[in-house]
Every structure is written in C-alpha cells, then in structure tokens.
Amino acid sequence: MTKKLWGGRFTGKTDPLMEAFNASIRFDRQLWAVDLRGSQAYARALERSGLLTESERTEIVDGLEAIIAEWESGTFVLQEEDEDIHTANERRLTERIGAVAGKLHTGRSRNDQVATDVRLWLRAEIVHLRAHLEQLIAAAVERAGEEIDLLLPGYTHLQPAQPVRWSHWLLSHAWAWQRDAQRLDELAARVDLMPLGSGALAGTPFAIDRDLLAAELGFAGITQNSMDGVSDRDFIIEFLFWATLAMVHLSRLAEDLILYSSREFGFVKLADAYSTGSSLMPQKKNPDALELLRGKSGRLAGHLTGLIMTLKGLPSTYNKDLQEDKEPLFDAVASMSGSLQIACGVLSTLQTRPAAMRAALSPEMLATDLAEYLVRRGVPFRESHHIAGAAVRMAEVQCVTLPELALADLQKLHKAFAADVEEVWSFEQSVERRDVAGGTSRRAVLAQIAHLRSWLAERA
Ligand code: ARG
C-alpha cells in the first residue's frame, strides 16, 4: 500500500485536531440554561402533537430539570466527545433517563436549536444591558442637576471655544446614551422571534404549534421562513453594531475625562477606585478605567467587521461558518456589560474641581459675545465678527486681556460700543444668553434634565 504523502495523520476516525477545531463547547457552554429550557418547552410541544406520551414528556422534562441543577451546582461533567452544548446536554439526558431521551430531538435540528438558544440568551442579556445603560444615564442626569452652577470651557478642535455648563457637557454624552437605549429596544424586537420548528432547513414535518411554543418560551413571535430562520444572524450583526457604537460613545466620554483629569486641565479628579498606579513612577495615578473604555471600541468594531465578513457570500441556510457568531457575540456582551458599569462608577465618583474649571475660562472665549454685542446694536454679524477679531488683536498688542481694553479704544473700532459693553465680560451671562432650546443656559439645561428624567421614568 502506498502511503499518501499527506495522509500520515489520518486514521479513518476524526483527527483529534479536527475534533478540537470543530468543537464549540469551550464557549457555547454559556448557553446551557437556555438550551435546557428550550428543550423542556420543545418536549411539551412534542407531547401536544402526540409524539410523546405524558409520561415520556414528564421523564424528559424532569431529566432536563436535573441537568439544570447539575449545571447550577457546578457538578455537570463535560466529556471529551461533547462537541457543543446541545450534544453535551443530550448526552447527559440519555445517561440519566435512557433511550427515551432520543425522542427529544424529533423534528428538531441543532440548526433551529442553536438559533433559538442564541436568541433566548441575547434577549435576557439585553435586559441587563438596558438596565446598566439607564443607570449610566441616570448618574449623568443626577450630576447635571447637582452641579448646574459649574462652568468650564467648551472646545472645538480641542481649542478653547465658549464657556458652557459642566451639566451641558455631561448631558451631551447622556443624549448619545439615550439613542443607544432606543437603538437597543429596536433591535431587541428583532431578536425576539423564535426559529424553533424550522428543523434543519425545510421545517419540521410534525405538527408543532410554533406559536404556542414561542409563547411558552416568552418569544414575541416566530420566524416566518425556515430557511431564513436557521441562517439569519442579522440580529447578531445589529447587536454588534449597537455595541460598537455604544462603545464608541463611551470612548469619547473616556477621552474627555482623560484630558480633564490630566494635570494640565485638572477639571476633575478620578476616584482611586477607578485609577491605578505605576510600577515605576511613584507619583503616577493613571486613568486606566477610562483608557480601557477608550480601547475597547477597537475590539468591538473588530467583532462587527469579523462577523459581517463571515456572513458575506454564505450559501443559503446553515453552514458551519455560523458557529463563528458566538465568540464575538459573547465577548461583545461581556465587554459592554463591564464597560457600562465601569463608566457609571467613574462618572458618579469623580470629583469636580470648580476652581480649575473657572481658571481655564479666559476672556478671549467671550470674543464671540463681543461680536454679538454689536449685532444687538444693528451691526451685521460678518462685520462685527471682524471688529471683535480686531479687538482681540488690539488686546494682544497692548498685552492686556479683552475686558481691559479701554472703551475709547473699542470705540475706535466701532462707534456702537458703549459703557454697557462691560456686561459682555461675564461668563455666567454668556452662558445664560444661550437660552435657546438645547442651549447651555440654566433654564435650557434644566429642561434637558427634566426631559431625560421623564424619559427614564417612562421606562421604569
Ligand atoms: N455548534 C453549532 C453552532 O454553533 C451548532 C449547530 C450545528 N449544526 C450542524 N449542522 N452541524 O453553530
């Protein structure tokens, strides 16, 4: 017999490397609870359609209940041959109740089973994520209410631009999170459909009342095409997109706070609980929590990109490629859960430094207000913008700040300047003038707080 050059490893049985390559138990064991609950409901559906007797159904449901107890107490022992969570649970059921266990999989395939399991699992996780997100929004809203008096520089291009309320900055992040919450609700509706009954691809040949089964499992509805039902992973893509965008939002909060907590800004002091030291430099206090929040956005974008590439060009229905959906999904859920809670912790425990915020406000940031002063006296904005620029230059030449310019000098730039120009040089007044809906005046910020509070209350 001639030996194949490449055949040395093949034995006729599955190559052990292939066993390991093919197995998903290492990660899909997380699905143990939904897999078992789904099977219990399926056993009842089989009984309703006359495929199980009442006593067979009882044996199966009780057997599955005992396996739930094993997982819960940590006594479930995985075997070498357990390829995935579905085969592991079924193997164990056979060990416990014997041949009748073999009736459970009637008309079912791991294809509709796994799609159902993942949807059940994600639906429950979304409930937790929603709560974490609401807590984060509530923490921002509470702080915004308590610290409404604080002003700090607002930036564009990271250059000092105009004074704003600290609360306005806080809420600018909260609104992004509110959209994240809405987006999560919207995608949750598309997660909440049951594929079970789709069989391998063509639908089960037995009279399973899918609507009743779905209702029993708490699903809002059923998938309407068995071929689509077993292959649809859009809900995972949508979730990964949601997670990526929500993480990008957290990364932007993190970046602001990393800057604001630096010695150069000094607007906030992070609680020790969310900071770490340096192993080399004794003076260091590093914003690691925030840096991790910033960094994780890259990881989540990677998960989204990876899975959407996996789906591209797949032939219809189930292909093993789809097993690649779980690791990114599980990691995205864990990352988001941790990140939302950490962000909430950081935000609710940091200390503000009003004096540093105040010291960073410089009169140049009121140059726009100076131009607006002239606008109120009938000067076209394009002109007044130019004149205010000339005032900034004049102050620079005289080595004084804008408010220190003599009225007579200002009047050389435009005759509309009068003694009341003094009133321009108040940061409070500047902020209060921005009283438009969505602006940074006290009233406008209080309106945002009220809006978000009632939005939160409606969801409770
Ligand atoms: N472990 C598999 C997965 O996660 C379960 C489905 C297997 N189906 C199959 N036809 N081999 O996708």
Break the fold down into its secondary structure elements and pairings:
Blueprint: H1 16-22, H2 25-28, H3 32-48, H4 54-73, H5 85-97, H6 110-146, E1 151-156, E2 159-165, H7 166-191, E3 193-194, H8 210-216, E4 221-222, H9 226-231, H10 234-260, E5 268-269, H11 288-311, H12 326-349, E6 351-352, H13 354-360, H14 367-376, H15 381-398, H16 407-413, H17 427-433, H18 442-459
Parallel strand pairs: 3-4
Antiparallel strand pairs: 1-2, 5-6
Bound molecules: arginine.
Task: Compose a concise summary of this entry.
The chain is mainly α and 460 residues long. The protein has helices at residues 16-22, 25-28, 32-48, 54-73, 85-97, 110-146, 166-191, 210-216, 226-231, 234-260, 288-311, 326-349, 354-360, 367-376, 381-398, 407-413, 427-433, 442-459, and strands at residues 151-156, 159-165, 193-194, 221-222, 268-269, 351-352.
Beta-strand percentage? under 5%
| Number of DSSP strand runs | 6
Q: Which range best describes the helical content: under 10%, 10-25%, 25-40%, 40-55%, 55-70% or over 70%?
A: 55-70%
String of helices and strands = HHHHHHEEHEHEHHEHHEHHHHHH
CATH hierarchy class name of the largest domain? Mainly Alpha
Give Rg in angstroms. 31 Å
Shape, per Cα inertia axes: elongated
Q: With helices defined by DSSP (H or I, 4 residues minimum), what is the helix count? A: 18
At CATH level 2, the architecture of the largest domain is Up-down Bundle
| CATH topology heading of the largest domain | Fumarase C, Chain A, domain 2
* Biggest pleated sheet: 2 strands, antiparallel
Query: CATH H-level name of the largest domain... which superfamily?
Result: Fumarase/aspartase (Central domain)
